[in-house]
C-alpha cells in the first residue's frame, strides 16, 4: 500500500505528521510519498523509514484557506495539494491524506482524481467523539445545497464506511432533524426520511436531535453540509467557551500547586475520553481513490489515528464496496 | 399593563413562576392573569399581590409536547394555553408568557391571536448568552422552511427587538453561515446576504460562523429555524457532555469536603457568567401582541428575566415599531 502525505498547511508543521507516519510504518507494511519541504522532511524520516519505502516530492508552495479553491488548483501548479493529487492518479498510489485547506482538498479530489462514476456528489464526513465511542457525521460542509437523493447516497456511503473501517456490524443510521417524530423538519428532512425508510440494506432508526449528536445514539448521522457544519462548529464554540471558563476557575483557586496539578490531571483524564484526537480525520467519500482530511491542528496522535483510518479505507476496499452498493 | 401567565406545563411546577411574578410585581406597576390550578396558585400569591391586581383562570388541562399542536388547540378547549390566548384577545391584556409546548404556543399565537397584517411568518427568537453578554438568535425553530425574504423580515424584527428591549443603539447584525466570506453558504444564505446588504436601516456586518455564536461578535444572528435549532441544541448537547465529565472529575478527587466545596463554588461562579438563566426567554415576533416563550425548566430567576423581557416588549411598544419598519 502506498499512501501520499501532503505535509504542508498544517498548523503545527510537518514534524507531527511525519512522526505519526513513522508510528504507522512500524505497524503496517506501507510505503509513503511525502509532499513538502524536502530539507525538513528528510532529516526526520531517513533513519526511521527504509529508503525503498518512501519518496519525497519537494515543494514549498501550498494552498491557503484564503485562496479560492478552484482558482488555486488551476494557478498553483506547484502547490503540495496539486502535486499530491497528480501523483495519486498514478496506478501505484492507493490513498491520500492532507491537513490543508478543505476547499482545495475537495476541488483537487473532484477535478484531479474525480468522482466515482455513479456518484452524484462526493461527501466530506467526520468521525466525531461520542460518550459511547464515535459516530460518522455526513456531510460536514462539502455540500451546502443538496437534494434528498444526495442524502440517500451519503447514507449508503457512510454506512459502508463505518461498517468496513470501524467494524460496526449493523450501523444505526439516523437523520439529523429538529425533532424526533417522523413528520418533523424542513422539506428536505421529510423527503429524506421517506427515502431512507425504504432502504432495505441500512438500519434506519429515524431522526436524531442535535443535542443527542454526542450521546452515542447512532453510528451514522446524516445531514446536509450546511447543517452538519453548523452542528459541529456550534458545539466546538460551546466547548471553547466552557473550557475557557473552567481554566479561569482553576486559576482563581487558592490552593497549592500540587493540588492544582492533581485536579487538572483528573479533569484532563476524563475529558480525554471525549477528545477528537482519539477519533481523527474525516474521510471524503465518493472519490475514485481514498481521500482523508486531517484536522488543520493535527498532532502526532490525531494524525496517527487519521492515517490508520485511511489505511483501513484502502485495505477494506471501501471504494469498490460503495460502487457495488450504489449500483443496486 | 396586564400580563397573562400560563402556569401549566413547566418542568418545575408553578411555584417558581409565581414567585418570579411576585418579584416583578414588587418592581413594576403590573397586573396578572394567572391560568392554571387555582388551588395551587391562590395560596402562593394572595398575601403578596393585591386582589385587584390579579385574576385566576382555573384549569388543570394543558397541552403536552406529545400532542399535535394544531389538533390540540382545536380539541383541548380548556387547556391553559388555549384559555390564555383567548383571554389575550381581550382589549385589556397586553402580553403573554408560557413555559408550555413550543408548538402549541406557535399555533395558539398564529391561529388565536394572529400575525401582524404585514408579516409573512412569525419568528421565534432566543436571547442566548455570549462571553460579552447576550445576542438574539432568530429563528430558532418556528420556521423550518424559509425564503430569503422571510429572513429579511426576521432581521428587521430582531433588530427592533434588541434595540428597544435591550437598549443596543446600533445592533450588529450577522448572518449565520458556514464561512465568513460573502460568497460562502447555500443558496438561501447567498440570497439573504444580498438582501441584507441592501437594507439601509440595519447594521449588517456579514456572515458569522457557528463557532462564534457565543463569542459576543454580534447582537442579532439571523438564520432559518432548522439551522438555528441545530446550532442551539448542538451547543446544549456539548455543554451537557462536558458538564457531566467535569462533575465526574470532581467526584473522583481525593480531597476534603471543604476544598471540594470551594472548587465547585469557584467553577459555578465563572460558569454563571454564561448561564441562560441570566438571559431568559424567547420572544415570538410578528404576532399582534407580545408573546414570550420561557424555558420548560424555568426557575424563579430565569422566569423573572423572561418576564422583565416581556414587560419591556410591551412598554416599548415593539409591535408598533415593527409594523412601522416593515411598512417602509
Provide structural commentary.
The structure is a homodimer of 328-residue chains. The first copy, chain A, contains eleven helices and eleven strands. Chain A is of the alpha/beta class and 328 residues long. The longest helix of chain A has 28 residues, at 225-252.
Q: Which key features would you list for this structure?
A:
homodimer, 328 residues, alpha/beta, 11-stranded mixed beta sheet, 11 helices
Mean pLDDT value of chain A: 94
Assembly level? homodimer
Most extensive interface, residues per chain?
A-B, 55 and 55 residues
How far apart are the termini of chain A? 29 Å
Q: What Rg of chain A, in angstroms, do the CA atoms define?
A: 20 Å
Order of helices and strands of chain A: EHEHEHHEHEEHEHEEHHEEHH
Low-confidence stretches of chain A: none
Measured by DSSP, the beta-strand proportion of chain A falls in 15-25%
Secondary structure: helix percent of chain A: 40-55%
State the shape of chain A: globular
As laid out across the biggest beta sheet of chain A, the strand order is 3-2-1-4-11-10-5-6-9-7-8
Count of discrete alpha- or pi-helical segments spanning 4 or more residues of chain A: 11
Decide which structural class fits the backbone of chain A.
Answer: alpha/beta
Total number of beta strands of chain A: 11
The major beta sheet of chain A can be summarized as: 11 strands, mixed
Protein topology:
The structure is a homodimer of 328-residue chains.
Chain A: E1 2-6, H1 14-27, E2 31-36, H2 38-45, E3 54-58, H3 69-75, H4 80-88, E4 95-98, H5 102-113, E5 123-130, E6 133-138, H6 148-165, E7 172-177, H7 187-198, E8 203-209, E9 220-222, H8 225-252, H9 257-272, E10 282-285, E11 291-293, H10 300-315, H11 318-327
Parallel strand pairs in A: 1-2, 1-4, 2-3, 4-11, 6-9, 7-8, 7-9
Antiparallel strand pairs in A: 5-6, 5-10, 10-11
Helix pairs in contact in A: 1-2, 1-10, 3-5, 4-5, 6-7, 6-11
Amino acid at each position: 500500500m502506498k499512501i501520499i502525505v501532503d505535509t504542508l498547511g498544517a498548523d503545527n508543521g510537518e514534524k507531527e505528521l511525519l512522526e505519526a507516519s513513522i508510528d504507522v510504518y512500524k505497524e503496517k507494511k506501507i510505503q509513503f510519498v511525502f509532499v513538502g519541504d524536502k530539507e525538513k522532511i528528510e532529516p526526520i524520516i531517513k533513519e526511521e523509514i527504509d529508503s525503498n519505502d518512501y519518496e519525497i516530492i519537494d515543494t514549498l508552495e501550498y494552498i491557503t484557506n484564503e485562496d479560492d479553491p478552484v482558482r488555486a488548483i488551476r494557478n498553483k501548479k506547484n502547490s503540495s495539494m496539486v502535486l499530491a493529487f497528480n501523483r495519486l492518479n498514478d496506478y501505484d498510489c492507493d490513498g491520500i491524506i492532507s491537513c490543508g485547506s478543505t476547499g482545495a482538498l475537495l476541488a483537487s479530489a473532484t477535478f484531479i482524481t474525480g468522482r466515482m462514476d455513479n456518484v452524484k456528489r462526493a461527501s466530506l464526513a467526520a468521525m466525531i467523539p461520542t460518550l459511547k465511542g464515535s459516530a460518522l457525521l455526513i456531510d460536514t460542509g462539502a455540500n451546502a445545497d443538496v437534494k434528498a437523493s444526495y442524502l440517500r447516497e451519503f447514507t449508503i456511503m457512510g454506512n459502508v464506511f463505518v461498517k468496513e473501517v470501524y467494524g460496526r456490524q449493523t450501523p444505526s443510521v439516523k437523520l439529523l432533524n429538529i425533532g424526533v417524530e417522523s413528520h418533523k423538519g424542513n422539506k428536505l428532512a421529510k423527503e429524506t426520511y421517506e427515502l431512507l425508510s425504504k432502504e432495505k440494506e441500512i438500519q434506519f432508526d429515524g431522526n436524531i436531535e442535535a443535542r443527542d449528536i454526542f450521546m452515542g445514539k447512532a453510528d451514522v448521522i446524516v445531514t446536509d453540509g450546511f447543517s452538519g457544519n453548523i452542528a459541529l462548529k456550534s458545539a466546538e464554540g460551546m466547548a471553547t467557551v466552557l473550557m475557557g471558563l473552567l481554566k479561569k476557575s482553576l486559576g482563581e483557586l487558592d490552593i497549592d500547586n500540587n493540588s492544582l496539578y492533581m485536579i487538572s490531571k483528573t479533569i484532563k483524564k476524563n475529558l480525554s475520553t471525549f477528545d477528537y484526537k482519539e477519533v481523527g480525520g474525516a474521510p471524503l467519500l465518493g472519490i475514485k481513490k481514498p481521500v482523508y482530511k486531517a484536522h488543520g491542528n493535527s498532532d502526532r496522535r490525531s494524525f496517527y489515528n487519521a492515517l490508520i483510518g485511511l489505511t483501513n479505507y484502502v485495505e477494506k476496499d471501501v471504494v469498490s464496496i460503495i460502487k457495488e452498493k450504489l449500483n443496486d
